[in-house]
Each structure stands twice: as structure tokens, then as C-alpha cells.
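User:
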Amino acid sequence: MASPSPSQTPAPAEQTFAERLSALEAIVKRMESGELPLEAALTAYSEGMQLLQACQRDLQQAEHTVMLLNQQQQLVPFETE
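Assistant: Predicted structure:
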């Protein structure tokens, strides 16, 4: 099964967090296989970095949202025993 080319893959901004994470995992697997030629590996690395940055932005936004909700609702952090 061939992996989608960059032109067939939606831009990171158009994907959900789960889609970006799945795409990032697929890139890591392809790169870890050691079967990519240098040019393809560099392209995959660049795509992976874009996806990673988009995922990090999503997580930061989610953390900020949770902090705001906690302040507004005066929730206490969950603590494991």
C-alpha cells in the first residue's frame, strides 16, 4: 500500500489533532525503516517537523483552555494517590 504523497495529504492546519498525530507516527515508522532515499527522508523529516509543531500548538491551546476553565469554575487539579 503506497503512502499518500504530500500533495494528497491535507495541510497540518486542515487536520484534526488525531489526524496529525497519526500522520506523524506514519512518518516516524517510514523513517525508522531505513528504506527511504535521502531526498525522501529529508522531505519526510520536514513534514514531520511541521506536524510536530502543529501538535504542540494544539496541546498548548488545550492546556490554556483547561487552565481558563479551572479558573472560571474553580476546579481543583486531579491528583492520583
